[in-house]
Amino acid sequence: MLGAVFSALISMQSFADSAEGSTLSRSARLANRRTALRCLASATDYASEKKWAEAESQAALGRSYDATISDLWYISAVAAHGLGQTKAEVLPLVKRAIDYANWVNYNRDSARVLYADILVDTMHFRDVFGVIDSSPFIYSADAEYIRTKAYYCMGDSRSVDKARERIASARQIYPDDMRFPLLFFTFESPDDTNPVVRELAKLFVAQAVQCVSPSPDKDAELEMYASLFASGETRTRLLQSFAARGLSHPLYARVALEDGILSQEEAFRYLVSFADGTLDYSYLADFMPLLGDETVLQMAREYFTAYSGTLVRDTGGDGIPDLKVVYERGRPSSISYDVDQDSVSEWHIDCDFGVPVSGTCTLEGELGTQVYDFSWADRFPYLSTVSCDGGLRTYELVSGSLKWSPVNIVESEPVSAATGVQFFFPEINVQERGMSDALLLGACSSFTIPTRERRDAFIRVTVLNGAMQIADYYSEGKLYARTQFEGDVPALRLVDSDGDGIFETTEYYRLDSEEEGAVFSPEDERTITANIFGSPSNGSRFSLRMIQVDQNADNIADYTEEYMPGGGKISSWDSDEDGRWDVRYVVHPAAEDGTHLEESMFYGVPGTELVTVTMEGGVPVKVRSQNGDFVSELPVKKDAKQSLYWIGEPASSSLAKKALAACNKSGAQGVSVIVADSKHRVLAVRIGSFSFGKIIPEEELSGEETVLEKDDAKTE
After folding, report:
1. What distances in angstroms separate CA 215 from CA 70, 94, 183, 209, one per listed residue?
2. DSSP calls for 298-335
3. What was the pLDDT predicted at 702?
4. What pLDDT is stored for residue 436 in this prediction?
5. Which residues make beta-bridge pairs with 254?
6. Confidence of residue 519 (pLDDT cuts 50, 70, 90)
7. CA distances (Å), 238 to each of 211, 258, 282, in order?
8. Cα torsion for 578, 579, 583, 588, to the nearest 10°?
9. Number of neighbouring beta carbons within 10 Å of residue 554
10. Which end of the chain offers a freer environment for a tag, N or C, measured as fewer CB atoms within 10 Å?
């Protein structure tokens, strides 16, 4: 009864402790949330004043107390945008805000609109509708603008029709929002005969004409695009009003030239004032064919021969430039391409007077997204070097073996045809294949990869016709290993284990056989492939067959380790350097129950006697002696005081101690020596962690022998 009461008291105390802990935990969470909310209030105030750095600082501090508050992530996203950070940096912040769905002040819909806006700009057009069309459906000027742009960017006829429908609807619902007419003018063509397009163009042009009274510079682009769709006096009025108000836009050069407002020279000078900085290539391409005056053409020749500036191009047709070319001395100096338009270029190329010489490219490869650095030396477009993993993996390519470039350098037909000078503008090489290790291996003469086998280590592999030949391994600039390959499979590997400059260890490899089964565990296999190839791999076609160690560089192995399928292993020691083993330890392949038969073997005196000790559970249980055709079994017994097993008749413990001391003088795990006292001479053997002693009959000794000698009849 008392025991039951005591158990109940203990249970009650445990429950009380648990309840108290739970209460403390809730209190801590509430305190953290209150602090996070104070940070949110402060961040909100800073954001309303457009103090973006302060807003981000407070939002980040708030998240350190409670990262689940969506508003804090949203403010960070807005602040990052306000600070001019890339879309790639803003996108994950607003996505976290939406995913947490834990709102305090800000409406979730604001985050959804921001998220959708970034999605459409980064070419995820179809994903937009899942964000702003899901429940609750968002209907606002911002959301409608994003939907319309997404439909235009999708490009198929059905989507474009939907975009026009939304443009027509927005014109009536949001008549003062000039984003919609500008979007229409940007994606539609003045030459389109579609009646819907013609009607909308007529209405938007009329709207633009009504706004030609003093208006902010933001309307400059709208008015210029409207002039493309206008004609006659309406176009002239738009252009004259545009110029009179001091507005400027590169498109004005072409339209004013076509309308006769500017002369060719005036128009050219107007356009190049933009080209001296940054100009959309499409404006240049549309303008140059209009020139015919020789004086102006000569000006153009001189200008483009020495051109220094930046040209950009929208290759995707969504109104956002993604290709950027910087010029020096009339030739491309650098080329950048933002594939997904997240404000981070996927590749960048540096040029030498217009010829690409090196670059960086982000590609999807066999191991996921990889950043490749490459160079063309003096044979563009044939690559000379390629590296990835931050330069840790580098391929030296055979000259002329791999033709690869993300761009084609071609003449700009509008400029060259008009002026007669060679002016180049790159084109995206959409047919170019991706990059892969197999592609690079087939074209390289050597490659370098890192390895974690040693400190600051790397591997330099020599390749011939796509097949690996030699691999040299360096640690802190010093060669420590070398592998020889046969048909891409390692045949042998030489290793300097102690750093003395001598390869004392030789590793032999072999092709695996399905019939033989696995030699190593998967983990051991990964370690072996990591040592050879720098990184672990499963399912390799080869395995380690044997290791030999020659410590004194006499070309005779002091130690040999052989590996067998099923986890079997043979370890052999040659202590007298005659090229034949003295002691051996054998682990046989696993039996069906997973156990291994283990045997320690050594040669007795005389050297023709082979002694085999069978182990069970790490204990010697059976000894067999074979001398020629004569086979016998001998008893085995542990010494009363020392860690030594006597084979046959035991000698004294003092002699056992002497035998152990003699074995310990050698650093090898396999050694055999002869020791003696006044009564007996004993062959002392150490194999691994086990030591054995066997009394040598007097008639089998020769003179004052103190070390074991093998005769020529000993078998290997």
Report:
1. 39, 34, 19, 12
2. HHHHHHHHT--EEEEE-SSSSS---EEEEEETTEEEEE
3. 52
4. 83
5. none
6. low
7. 10, 14, 22
8. -170
9. 10
10. N
The pair of structure tokens assigned to 492 is 């042998």
Paired residues of 385 in beta bridges: 375, 396
pLDDT tens for 283-308 read 999 999 999 999 999 999 999 999 99
Report how far residue 398's alpha carbon sits from residue 401's, in angstroms, rounded to the nearest whole number: 5
Strands (E), 566-680: 568-573, 583-587, 598-603, 609-616, 619-627, 630-634, 636-638, 645-647, 670-676
CA dihedral 544, 550, 556, 561 (to 10 degrees): -30
Of 302, 245, 243, 303, whose CA–CA distance to 279 is shortest? 303
Do residues 270 and 257 lie in contact, with contact meaning Cβ atoms separated by under 8 Å? no
Share of the chain above pLDDT 70, in %: 88
- Residue written as tokens 């007077």? 353
**In which residue are the tokens 């993604």 written?**
322
The pLDDT of residue 433 is above 80: no
What values do phi and psi take at 560, rounded to 5? -135, 135
Residue 633, helix vs strand vs coil: strand
Mean pLDDT of 158-186: 96
Over its C-alpha atoms, the chain yields an Rg (Å, rounded) of 41
Hey, what amino acid is at 119?
L
pTM of the model: 0.78
pLDDT at 364: 74
Residues in the chain: 716
For the chain, the helix, strand and coil percentages under 3-state DSSP, each to the nearest 5: 40, 25, 35
* Residue 241 reports pLDDT greater than 90: no
Is residue 248 a contact partner of residue 230, using CB atoms and an 8 Å limit? Answer: no
Contact 68, 102 (CB under 8 A): yes
CA-based nearest residue to 354, from 433, 429, 281, 407: 407
Q: Where are the beta strands (DSSP E) in 593-644?
A: 598-603, 609-616, 619-627, 630-634, 636-638
Amino acid at 613: V
Q: What is the maximum span of the chain, computed from C-alpha positions, in angstroms? A: 131
Place of tokens 């950070």: 85
Residue 543 near residue 520, CB atoms below 8 Å: yes
